[in-house]
Design brief:
This protein is of the alpha+beta class and 107 residues long. It has helices at residues 10-24, 26-38, 43-50, 54-66, 85-106, and strands spanning 40-42, 70-75, 78-83. The chain contains five helices and three strands; from the N terminus they run ααβααββα. The longest helix is centred in the last third of the chain and has 22 residues, at 85-106. It starts with 9 loop residues before the first helix and ends with a helix. The relative contact order is 0.14.
Length: 107
């Protein structure tokens, strides 16, 4: 019997898939880029500037928040969003490593 080359940790795989799913959506990418340009911003500014509906913007921000890609801070009735650069950077590095390892395995 052949030994598996890849060890799958199902809980980590689930978390990773949620993060990648959150990043993969074009509108969420647009929202992340907008937050990045503004450092910290509230939902009203996001949907007004990007020309989106408030409910849709809130749904996408919820997905980003649950994936840990954005942080929130309440200021009175406003919630300000900022990017969790550590989580985003770690995700990008993990994808890079995966792609580099895939190239090695393909040879």
């Amino acid at each position: 019997m052949r030994e598996a080359k890849v060890s799958v940790h199902h809980e980590r795989l689930q978390v990773s898939s949620e993060i990648l799913r959150a990043i993969a959506h074009p509108l969420r990418m647009k929202i992340l880029e907008f937050i990045d340009r503004n450092t910290e911003i509230n939902v009203n500014k996001i949907y007004n500037t990007l020309g989106l509906e408030q409910s849709i913007t809130s749904q996408h921000l919820r997905i980003l928040r649950l994936a840990g890609l954005v942080d929130t801070e309440r200021d009175g009735k406003y919630i300000h969003y900022s990017i969790n650069y550590e989580k985003v950077g770690g995700t990008v590095e993990a994808v890079k490593r995966f792609l580099e390892n895939s190239k090695v395995l393909q040879k």
